[in-house]
Design a protein that fits this description.
single chain; two-stranded antiparallel sheet; alpha/beta; 424 residues; 51% helix; 16% strand; eight-stranded mixed β-sheet; 13 helices
Length: 424
């Protein structure tokens, strides 16, 4: 028995060494990409992934051996004077299985924590993100997380990037229900004393994640202090790792999608296959990103864009809940290095283990509900028509706050927007 275990362990070590040697830097050494932190993180992630796959293979071989040994012992009769009870044999088998399961679970936990470590951790100064203590108290029981999609091609340096997508995921901690709403990128809002009133998409370019969180909290009476930042390549890679997502394509969307698919493929290094028919179909990563990003179609114009973003998020969430380990390994290896967040690895692990109990309610809300076009200085803005009324309606829908009265801060901002734009 011990000789067989020694052999299994030696095989595992050999497989791990083989995995270490598989990396071949090739011609990128000495280039900007070859020396980048992102490439180093990906190489380290792939090495850990290969080690875990080797470890799991070795463990499975060992478990097969133990099952064969147990089966052999059941078939062999012991001498009468040395006979052991069936209960004793059963206990040994159960203990062996439990020990193997514990080792396997421990290995998976270590791998998962290591993989989550590929996500770049950022610091958020919670005193600088505009949370009103009174609002925070009223939103007790809801966990609100901002998901920011930035237009950076390289996440190792996203300074000066704007947010193409701003989605708030609101989790009801009592029911595990998730609702989503997105904020139109051109919405004219207050970005703080230094920058005044501007499009909310510019908040990230000015002050990074803290600027975006400040704008969301200050203008909409929220208490968001957690953020996940991704670029469009990460979205494409996740969709491809999951084997695509099912989305219904309208006839009015095909021309715009096919117009921009080649450009998206170039920016994300993905497949540039065009859309050829309408109806429900499986989109690859490039197609899903293009579907999210097109800003107009022949029917509904610019504002359906936010709805499309949430459709992609919903479809990806549903697919991820049933994803197998190969897809999870690929996501942790290729996608995590493209993500930034201030949510700790341990907290992400808790959320991942809880994923199966979450339910995402169909909520395709875009904020503001009532918005009008405003042109100032030759620049287009989406001006909320009475920001305070829009905020009240959102809190009623998402946080069950019937007859919600916005904070004094939101009321002041609302009046100033109306004064500046002439839209009431």
């Amino acid at each position: 028995m011990s000789n067989e275990r020694d052999r299994q362990y030696e095989e595992y070590l050999a497989m791990r060494e083989h995995a270490r040697r598989r990396e071949n830097p090739g011609s990128v050494e000495g280039t900007a990409y070859g020396n980048s932190d992102m490439r180093r993180k990906r190489q380290e992630s792939r090495r850990r992934q290969e080690e875990m796959e080797a470890y799991l293979a070795a463990r499975e071989q060992h478990r097969d051996y133990e099952r064969r040994e147990a089966s052999g012992r059941r078939k062999t009769k012991a001498p009468k004077n040395g006979k052991k009870s069936k209960g004793s044999k059963a206990r040994r088998i159960v203990l062996s299985v439990l020990a193997g399961a514990a080792v396997l679970a421990g290995g998976l936990f270590i791998f998962a924590m290591s993989a989550l470590g590929n996500i770049e951790q950022i610091d958020i100064d919670k005193s600088a993100i505009g949370i009103d203590p009174g609002v925070d108290a009223q939103l007790d029981g809801y966990r609100n997380i901002a998901v920011l999609g930035v237009d950076a091609r390289d996440m190792s340096d996203d300074s000066g990037s704007r947010t193409d997508a701003m989605i708030v995921a609101s989790i009801n901690e009592e029911t595990d229900e998730i609702k989503l709403f997105s904020v139109f990128r051109d919405t004219y809002l207050y970005l703080g004393e230094e920058h005044g009133y501007d499009k909310i998409t510019h908040a990230y370019a000015y002050d990074g994640a803290e600027g975006s969180l400040y704008a969301l909290n200050k203008n909409i009476d929220l208490n968001i202090d957690e953020v996940v930042i991704i670029n469009w390549k990460a979205v494409a890679d996740v969709v491809d790792a999951l084997g695509g997502i099912d989305v219904e394509i309208l006839d009015s969307e095909i021309d715009e999608m096919n117009k921009y698919i080649p450009e998206t493929a170039k920016n994300t290094t993905g497949d540039d296959t065009l859309i050829t028919s309408v109806g429900m179909q499986t989109l690859n990563g490039v197609q899903a990103v293009t579907y999210s990003r097109i800003r107009k179609d022949a029917v509904t114009g610019d504002y359906r864009r936010n709805e499309r973003m949430k459709i992609v998020v919903q479809a990806t969430f549903d697919k991820a809940k049933t994803a197998g380990m190969p897809a999870i390994f690929k996501i942790t290896g290729d996608v995590f290095p493209e993500i930034k967040s201030n949510i700790s690895s341990m907290e992400m692990m808790k959320m991942a283990l809880h994923l199966g109990s979450y339910s995402m309610k169909d909520s395709t809300t875009g904020f503001p509900y009532d918005v009008a076009s405003a042109t100032m200085g030759g620049v287009f803005y989406g001006a909320p028509r009475n920001l305070a009324a829009n905020v009240s309606r959102l809190h009623e829908q998402f946080f069950n706050q019937t007859g919600y009265s916005p904070s004094d801060s939101v009321t002041t901002i609302s009046n100033e927007i109306s004064y500046r734009t002439g839209i009431y």
